[in-house]
Design goal:
single chain; 314 residues; mainly alpha; two-stranded antiparallel sheet; 74% helix
Length: 314
């Protein structure tokens, strides 16, 4: 334990990791990541602008999509500073407080995205299973309350994490697995008892990601039962088409998130490229793909975006 031990009065610094084996190509890697950031930031900003400008899109489904876009922007800006420093300027040291702040925001936006996907599934459930009550169930006031509930729940879940880590002594080489700070990665480095951290981490994962995924699955079971009760094939396909975008958003969020969590907890002896792949997918793919999918597949957004692009040529 000796010389490298740290306590709360001497907070450690952490070393971020780029892409092992690609040290000589870091600038090219950054160009790739910069392209992903550009698509994510510009795409989500366009989604927000289009929904704001188009009166026909001022309805619950698109309000929730706006919240998803704001959340994706938050995720992108949370990882951008350290990714930029690591891959472009080769600055890999990060202070304890900066790391805790970044971890807080990354996990905050992750929990928020899970909650947003849940309320979006509820929106699809009401629209398909109780279409006549849609306007009375999802009023503007209720949409605001649902959005605030998602934000408050996520904040309450994530808020204790930095304090639970700060109380622990760090006495190992604090080299992180990614170019950003994640709780599953950070709890591998303290030399003190991390039982409370593990229990609390498991609790918030089960009570948010676990519960949200189960409720999303239940909502789609009810949707499927309602759709199968429709006699005509055309009548079945139309409501299911409205769920495709949401199902894509659910998959591109939960699959990388589960992959990162499993790799961090059980992949200590996994090849370096496994952690590298996970580190690229988790923070970059969902914020990038969500605006692309919704821009292409949502008729109103696609038409407005096409008019904007055509108009910009003249």
């Amino acid at each position: 334990m000796g010389a490298n031990r740290h306590n709360s009065s001497e907070l450690p610094t952490f070393t971020l990791t780029g892409l092992p084996g690609l040290e000589t190509s870091q600038h090219w890697v950054f160009l790739l990541l910069a392209a992903l950031y550009t698509v994510s930031i510009v795409g989500n900003a366009l989604i927000l602008f289009i929904i704001k400008e188009e009166q026909s899109l001022h309805q619950p489904m698109y309000y929730f999509l706006s919240l998803l876009s704001v959340n994706d922007l938050g995720m992108s800006f949370s990882t951008l500073p350290t990714v930029l420093a690591t891959f472009c300027f080769h600055l890999r040291k990060i202070t304890f407080d900066s790391c805790m702040a970044q971890m807080f925001f990354i996990h905050l936006f992750s929990f928020m995205e899970s909650g947003i996907l849940l309320v979006m599934s509820f929106d699809r459930y009401v629209a398909i299973c109780n279409p006549l009550r849609y306007a009375t169930v999802l009023t503007d006031a209720r949409v605001v309350h649902m959005g605030l509930s998602v934000i408050i729940r996520s904040f309450c879940m994530v808020f204790p994490l930095p304090f639970l880590l700060k109380r622990l002594p760090f006495c190992r080489t604090n080299v992180l697995s990614h170019a950003y700070c994640l709780h599953p990665d950070l709890i591998r480095h303290p030399c003190g008892d991390i039982t409370i951290n593990n229990i609390f981490g498991l609790f918030i994962v089960i009570s948010t990601f676990g519960m949200d995924s189960v409720l999303i699955l239940l909502s789609y079971m009810f949707i499927l039962r309602s759709v199968l009760a429709i006699a005509s094939w055309e009548g079945r396909v139309k409501p299911l088409n409205t769920c495709v975008l949401h199902m894509c958003a659910v998959l591109i969020f939960y699959v990388p998130m589960v992959g990162v969590s499993m790799a961090a907890r059980y992949g200590k002896h996994a090849p370096a490229h496994v952690h590298t792949l996970m580190s690229l997918i988790y923070p970059f793919v969902p914020p990038m793909l969500n605006p692309v999918i919704y821009s292409i597949k949502t008729k109103e957004i696609h038409q407005k975006l096409s008019r904007m692009l055509v108009g910009s040529k003249f």
